[in-house]
Design a protein that fits this description.
This protein is an alpha/beta fold and 544 residues long. The protein contains 17 helices and 16 strands. The longest helix has 19 residues.
């Protein structure tokens, strides 16, 4: 087993197992962003996909080769060779090698029922498939992790055979043997017992092999099972950062990482990275276009929220009274819902990032708080849209001046007859800048795309630097699905100028209007950060 008994490897499968969750669909760009975020967090491995399953994963591995990653190791995922075949001639294994990763995760059956009834081969052939596949990849210079699929169910059914699958992988040169609770139905006491037995048995013969744990949440025990496995000697924990995955999801790494580090004293991530956990977890969720539960431990918005009575009184005297850790350890913040002073202090901390001299009793602070409360009630959320938040602060501090005013915009969509050209959208935008009127027309793949192009087109003559900016992401969140097509929506866009990225937000019952708000904020934020002077005769109204 690993020499450093206090070191736990973190293996994130957001891009593979997480991508199998209902409603999740990552673009190649999404996957590249997530890998970079996981690298910044200090995660050890990112299981980035199965290059044999779809062209998108193959494209990702090609693009990922150009990333400058500081710590994380990319992992390609695939299965053992097919029954009655040869590893050297197996198409799936060839595609695994084409991914170009130094590390490969191979899954094989450890449950005799899965071998005979699902894979429909013999128990002996399955052992040969595991041994020959891993040996072939190791001979190619690859580091191999073996996922013992259905291990805990397999051990319950036929313990001798389940152990033989691990021994075959170890004999073939696997670095880590991962015990998988694939159906997610095992309970913590059983996982602890069997993991301890495996570690104790294998260390007699395979002293350098590490044991990992991979759990699913079908019995709501994924995190507990992972912790029990660690207590029994597992030194690699697999999961997904936000917990989503097949069926009920995977072990939630955003919960496990701080528990392992703060509560149990294990070495995880890179030094100093834990404080980035909340922001990076929320960023990954935003890329996945899902909401994080307010009550998610450690990183949820309610994780350190207190409301009324003796809780507020206790926190005011000493946070240890009702908080199990300091929220700053994981990059989160305390919220005191019933205390006006505490609420002001919380927002003031963010305001002072942009205006250090402003005080808690300043009328502008109170005005900003009231504005934020009103906007949050309307559905705004600024966790992933700091640029819009900064503009709000600047408006209240008097340092903001609009760069243009809107006369009007119009979007037109057309769906042609069957067999005609593709659906087209046109946008017309008319603005006023420094006493001058300008109008532009643009076509796009959708109304928002056309609107974005028309807005930048009409403004580039006044502000040439806008020519170098473009949208890199666009997401829509329905805030109240019960209102059906009349629901409020929140639009979050990410923009880049090639060197800097920033995000802005808009909320409306009209998706075009919400998009317009986010687009305008994006443009004005760029101009303001560049120090471009706003026209002297401008007045509020750009977002109208």
């Amino acid at each position: 087993m690993e020499n450093n008994k206090k070191r736990i490897e973190i293996f994130d499968s957001t891009l593979r197992d997480g991508a199998q969750a209902e409603g999740i669909s990552f673009s190649v760009l999404d996957k590249l962003k997530i890998v970079q975020l996981l690298d910044e967090l200090g995660v050890d491995y990112a299981e980035a996909g199965n290059p044999g399953s779809n062209p998108k994963d193959l494209e990702f591995f090609k693009e990922a080769a150009n990333l400058h990653l500081n710590h994380i190791e990319l992992v390609a995922f695939g299965s053992t060779r097919r029954p009655s075949s040869n590893a050297a001639n197996d198409t799936g294994i060839a595609q695994l090698l084409s991914a170009g990763t130094d590390t490969i995760s191979i899954f094989g059956k450890s449950w005799d029922f899965q071998v005979t009834d699902i894979l429909r081969t013999t128990l002996a052939e399955n052992i040969a498939m595991i041994r020959e596949t891993i040996a072939y990849l190791v001979a190619k210079g690859k580091t191999v992790l073996f996922d013992a699929e259905h291990f805990f169910d397999g051990y319950k059914s036929n313990p001798d055979y389940a152990m033989k699958t691990l021994e075959a992988a170890a004999d073939a040169g696997a670095k880590t043997l991962v015990l998988c609770d694939t159906r997610g139905g095992s309970l913590p006491t059983y996982v602890k017992e069997i993991t301890h037995l495996v570690v104790d048995t294998l260390k007699r013969t395979y002293s350098k092999i590490a044991i990992g744990i991979h759990t699913h949440n079908d019995s709501s025990c994924a995190e507990a099972n992972s912790l029990m496995a660690v207590e029994s000697g597992a030194r690699q924990v697999q999961g997904t950062l936000v917990g989503f995955g097949e069926r009920c999801g995977n072990a939630n790494l955003a919960t496990l990482i701080p528990t392992l580090s703060i509560k149990m004293g294990y070495e995880v991530l890179l030094p100093g990275s834990l404080t980035k956990l909340t922001l990076i977890t929320r960023s990954v969720a935003e890329i996945a276009n899902i909401g994080i539960s307010d009550g998610m431990p450690y990183v949820g918005i309610s994780a350190f929220t207190h409301k009324g009575g003796m809780h507020i009184d206790g926190i005011a005297k000493n946070p240890l009274s009702f908080e199990h850790i300091d929220p700053e350890l994981v990059g989160n913040e305390r919220r005191l819902l019933m205390s006006e002073v505490a609420g002001r202090a919380m927002v003031l901390n963010r305001i002072q990032k942009y205006a250090p001299s402003i005080g808690k009793d300043d009328e502008r602070t109170k005005a900003i708080i009231n504005t934020l409360k009103r906007m949050e009630m309307a559905g705004y959320q600024f966790e992933g849209a700091e640029s819009s938040f900064e503009l709000i602060i600047c408006k209240h501090l008097g340092t903001y001046h609009p760069y243009f005013t809107l006369d009007h915009y119009k979007t037109l969509g057309e769906r042609p007859l069957i067999g005609g050209p593709e659906t087209s959208h046109t946008a017309v935008v008319k603005v006023h800048v420094d006493g001058q009127s300008a109008i532009a027309v643009a076509q796009g793949d959708g109304p928002v795309h056309a609107l974005d192009k028309a807005l930048r087109k009409v403004l580039e003559g006044f502000y040439p630097s806008l020519n170098g900016m473009h949208l890199t992401d666009y997401k829509v969140r329905v805030l109240d699905s019960r209102s059906a097509t009349a629901a409020q929506v929140r639009v979050l866009i990410e923009t880049t100028d090639g060197s800097t990225n920033w995000s802005t937000v808009g909320v409306s019952a009209d998706i075009i209007d919400a998009s317009w708000m986010a687009l305008v904020d994006s443009i004005e934020y760029k101009l303001m950060k560049e120090g471009v002077a706003a026209p002297v005769d401008s007045h509020q109204g750009a977002n109208a």
